[in-house]
Design brief:
Its EC number is 2.4.1.13. The protein is α/β, with parallel strands linked by helices. Helix content is 45%, strand content 15%. Strands 11-12-10-9-15-16-17-20 form an 8-stranded mixed β-sheet, with helices on both faces. A 7-stranded mixed β-sheet has the order 21-24-23-22-25-26-27, sandwiched between helices. Strands 1-2-3-4-5 form a 5-stranded antiparallel β-sheet, sandwiched between helices. Strand 3 and strand 4 form a beta hairpin. Helix 2 packs across helix 3 and helix 17 packs across helix 19. The longest helix has 24 residues. The chain is globular and about 85 Å long. The structure holds uridine-5'-diphosphate and 1,5-anhydro-D-arabino-hex-1-enitol (LCN). 1,5-anhydro-D-arabino-hex-1-enitol (LCN) binds next to helix 15.
């Protein structure tokens, strides 16, 4: 980064440059470090460091001068510091993905560069001294086991792993001494249900293949480009070619030329095009286990939100893309996508107790549900995603059998979702030797401050030890990782990413993770989801509007009475509405938004507030966080006398009606507000923007990337309610004086969506990844095996024990096993 002030010279490490910097402000720094250490052992976050600095250097001008210098740069890039007097160990992050660790002696300001491991030990000293100094504490080091995978070097390359991998693949293929036959072997292995595709054994060496390609290409060139493959299929087979090259002579010729060129000298662009055409993907399994996974009446239930929406939309997009590819390959094959989730016998009116369900708007895709078994029988009820670990191993075994039975073949790609789905996908992919992808939706570790070092405080409630171990297993076993945004991997200038937070961390008393994952691993890829545009379309598309819902929505927003579905009312129908919708989780911060609104007179005078989320009777909820949020909402309504300006609507399950609700809010010239303390991606943001609703969304996480602040919407700071509610009020004040302002924002939001966030872009990218990384894993078999063995040990010795600590409900919650 060359943008700011006295940046380090490239070759300088912090350890090299810090002594000088300290020397220059020795007087102040001695005071400052004395402050750091006076309170004894502790962990300081960035803001604590800054607060101490402020107190140590009282003179503002002095302080600013110091902050403008190198020291300021170092301190402002410091994420946290572990104080173990007389030492202060700093974790400095000069750029996304880059960390340096230094230890400073507060007495004499001596600086020493240290390794991640030593930094972690300092941190552990604060929490568990005995364990920290035990030479044989458990250390996990994936970096040491994975030494052959080439890594990227630039922050700007993070998330673009496919590109990098294709480059490395090209150069490997070009190195004739090495893997010259790797591509040939791969082509020979392609088949559908045992029938060869592309080539057969006749072309079992490169010279034969290359010669045959020339002959066949010439032959195909002489035909009319639309000649169907069947017309010349027999002749091609005599030469050693099988189906899969294309549906017409024109297409076949192109694909053959691509392969010839790659065999002559591979380059990344040609290689990727070739691989995007290879017939190597017909069956896909997608795991999404927790929550209520269904197609109707489930959204908004605990643990049931965007992940379900994402997967159903993803399936539709993938199937469409697969069908098109298969047609162009000239094959007559039925692709199958199976979403595998848990079966919940006590389904609460949803279809979550059905074993098999076709997926709407697809031709060949299904939901397959497999129950949670234990020795006590089948678990009847919903179980929180935090308590799900004891069931997963058995689930993986049962699911594998059912899946093979349903597909009548091994899948070509297994995609996991969230910790539970990812772990099960790892177990299954490993067992069957299939390409594996993972998706996190949210990694919980970064959502709760110090959830790793303070795991003992969290474990009873959240079982993070199981979760973080499972996450590490899956990240490392995956052939590729699909993320929604850059920040998910490597954060932003000031804030580490969700995956980055797994680079080096420690759970004192349990294990020290010296290297958990590297964000420079080329397995990381960004493929952002979209929203179903046949559902979420702009409010201006008059002829498409779902008028049938208008009366219901009018009632939902404006009727005066309280009932099961809504409480509170809106006195002034002429005001614009600010609207939010989410599960009633703490992190979603809906109650925070209500509080900002409640406290801001100006905002209250400008707009009404409508919230969709949860329900009103805490006694009805089984979810801890939901219960406390419900209570908080009620007390805010009372305390700030919100009735008349605020409507609280219970969780909504019909996405068609919801889409019309977004559009109705747009009719009032209102806005969508997403106030989450942290949001991994934020589908509601995309939905609102697709409907043409100007959007204010949290600057913590995905939305910060989706929206360009002030251009296609606005960022708000969930930790600064005053500033946020002011920003919203400013917008509406401006709209009063310049009504065009609202329209401009609405249009700019839509433009942003169409350029970057659609499912078509997504599906194409993901299938290309499946193809390339599938080949990559074959090429790196030995490395893969070493890692698998290491992972297996971690699973068997560590994860299993942790999962056993998670309590399971009593006998009454289980139904006895049916006789086999
Ligand atoms: N949603 C809904 N009803 C509700 C709350 C949420 O239909 O009462 C939908 C919302 O439209 C979106 C999804 O659930 O499609 C929430 O996804 P998001 O990514 O915003 O958050 P998540 O719940 O996955 O954390
Ligand atoms: C889970 C979340 O928490 C959201 O941020 C995402 O938008 C959703 O999953 C879909 O990926």
């Amino acid at each position: 980064d060359s943008s700011s002030g006295p940046v380090l010279k490239r070759a300088d490490t912090i350890a090299d440059s810090m002594p000088d910097a300290l020397r220059q402000s020795r007087f102040h720094m001695k005071k400052c470090f004395a402050r750091f250490v006076t309170r004894g052992k502790r962990l300081m976050k960035h803001q604590h460091i800054m607060e101490d600095l402020e107190k140590a250097v009282e003179d503002r001008a002095e302080r600013n001068k110091l902050l403008e210098g190198l020291l300021g740069y170092i301190l402002s890039s410091t994420q946290e510091a572990a104080v173990v007097p007389p030492y202060v160990a700093f974790a400095v992050r000069p750029n996304p993905g880059f960390w340096e660790f230094v230890k400073v002696n507060a007495d004499d300001l001596q600086v020493e560069g240290i390794e991640a491991k030593d930094y972690l030990k300092c941190k552990e000293m604060v929490f568990d001294e005995k364990w920290a100094s035990d030479e044989n504490s458990l250390e996990i080091d994936f970096g040491a086991i994975d030494f052959t995978t080439p890594h990227m070097a630039l922050s700007s390359s993070i998330g673009n792993g496919l590109n990098f991998t294709t480059k490395i693949l090209s150069s490997r293929l070009n190195d004739k001494s090495q893997s010259s036959n790797a591509l040939l072997d791969y082509l020979l292995s392609l088949n559908y249900q045992g029938e060869n595709l592309m080539i057969n054994d006749k072309l079992n060496n490169l010279p034969k293949l290359q010669t045959a390609l020339k002959v066949a290409e010439t032959y195909a060139s002489a035909l009319h480009k639309d000649t169907p493959y069947q017309k010349f299929e027999d002749r091609f087979r005599e030469w050693g070619f099988e189906k899969g090259w294309g549906n017409t002579a024109g297409r076949v010729k192109e694909t053959m030329r691509m392969l010839s060129e790659v065999l002559e000298a591979a380059d990344p662009v040609k290689l990727e095009s070739l691989f995007s055409r290879l017939p190597n993907m017909f069956n896909i399994v997608i795991f999404s286990i927790h929550g209520y996974f269904g197609q109707a009446d489930v959204l908004g239930l605990p643990d049931t939100g965007g992940q379900v929406v994402y997967i159903l939309d993803q399936v539709r997009a993938l199937e469409e893309e697969l069908l098109q590819k298969i047609k162009l390959q000239g094959l007559n094959v039925k692709p199958q996508i199976l979403v595998v989730t848990r079966m919940i016998p006590d389904a609460k009116g949803t279809k979550c107790n059905q074993e098999l369900e076709p997926i709407f708007n697809t031709k060949h895709s299904h939901i397959l549900r497999v129950p949670f078994w234990t020795e006590k029988g089948i678990l009847r009820q919903w179980v929180s995603r935090f308590d799900i670990y004891p069931y997963l191993e058995r689930f993986a075994q049962d699911a594998t059998i059912k899946i093979l039975d349903h597909l009548e073949a091994k899948p070509d790609l297994i995609i996991g979702n969230y910790t539970d789905g990812n772990l099960v996908s790892s177990l299954m992919a490993n067992k069957l030797g299939v390409t594996q992808a993972t998706i996190a939706h949210a990694l919980e570790k970064t959502k709760y401050e110090d959830s790793d070092v303070k795991w003992k405080e969290f474990d009873e409630k959240y079982h993070f030890t199981s979760q973080f171990t499972a996450d590490m297993i899956s990240m490392n076993s995956a052939d590729f990782i699909i993320t929604s945004t850059y920040q998910e991997i490597a954060g932003s200038t000031n804030k580490p990413g969700q995956y980055e937070a797994h680079t080096a961390f420690t759970m004192p008393g349990l294990c020290r993770v010296m290297s958990g994952i590297s964000v420079f691993d080329p397995k990381f890829n960004i493929a952002a989801p979209g929203a179903d545009q046949s559902v979420y379309f702009p409010f201006t598309e008059k002829q498409q509007r779902l008028i049938k819902f208008h009366l219901e929505i009018e009632e939902l927003l404006y009727s005066k009475d309280d009932n099961e579905e809504h409480i509170g009312y809106l006195e002034d129908k002429n005001k614009p509405i600010i609207f939010s919708m989410a599960r009633l989780d703490k992190v979603k911060n809906l109650s925070g938004l209500v509080e900002w609104y409640a406290k801001d007179k100006r905002l209250r005078s400008l707009v009404n507030l409508v919230i969709v989320g949860g329900f009103f009777n805490p006694a009805k909820s089984k979810d801890r966080e939901e219960i406390s949020e419900i209570k908080k909402m009620h007390s805010l309504i009372e305390e700030y006398k919100l009735k008349g300006q605020f409507r609280w609507i219970a969780a909504q399950t019909d996405r068609y009606r919801n889409s019309e609700l977004y559009r109705s809010i747009a009719d009032t010239k209102g806005a969508f507000v997403q106030p989450a303390m942290y949001e991994a991606f934020g589908l509601t943001v995309i939905e609102a923007m697709n409907c043409g609703l100007p959007t204010f969304a949290t600057n913590q996480g995905g939305p910060a990337e989706i929206i360009v602040d002030g251009v296609s919407g606005f960022h708000i700071d969930p930790y600064n309610g005053d500033e946020s509610s002011n920003k919203i009020a400013d917008f509406f004040e401006m709209c009063k004086t310049d009504p065009e302002h609202w329209n401009r924002m609405s249009k700019a939001g839509l433009q942003r969506i169409n350029e970057c966030y659609t499912w078509k872009i997504y599906a194409n990218k993901v299938l290309n990844m499946g193809s390339i990384y599938g080949f990559w894993r074959r090429l790196n078999k030995e490395q893969k095996l070493a890692k698998e063995r290491y992972i297996h040990m971690l699973y068997s010795l560590q994860f299993r024990n942790l999962a056993r600590n998670v309590p399971i409900p009593g006998e009454a919650s289980f139904e006895p096993a049916p006789m086999a």
